[in-house]
Amino acid sequence: MKKRTSGSEVGGGGDSPSQLIDARIEELGDWRGDTLGRIRALVTKADPDVVEEWKWRGVPVWSHAGMICTGETYKNAVKVTFAKGASLDDPSRLFNSGLEGNTRRAIDLHEGDTIDEKAFQALVHAAVALNTS
Prior knowledge:
Layout (H helix, E strand, L loop, with lengths): L1 E2 L13 H12 L2 H16 L4 E5 L3 E5 L3 E7 L4 E5 L22 E5 L7 H16 L1
Helix pairs in contact: 1-2, 2-3
């Protein structure tokens, strides 16, 4: 996984985006941190050349020749938004949020939810393929 600093604010001390994501996962300290860590592991396993970024004052972003997805955390959900999700085939129907949009699609994960790892990694592969085509 490549580590770089995006053009966004990265917080105090000049920490790298990967360090900031590590800190966010640890700071959450609950199922949301575990879920965000799992999503991160699946993205980086699916695409070893992924670039981690930290944008919009605290949103983990995974990119490869363009944005793949973001990992936002809320009180009751972890939202994984695929930037070009509307253009991706989703035969396993992982997308369950943002379905009315023309561009993005998201997967909202709640406490106790599991994710089909194979289907999720297929979405990552498809997003990278779309970005590099």
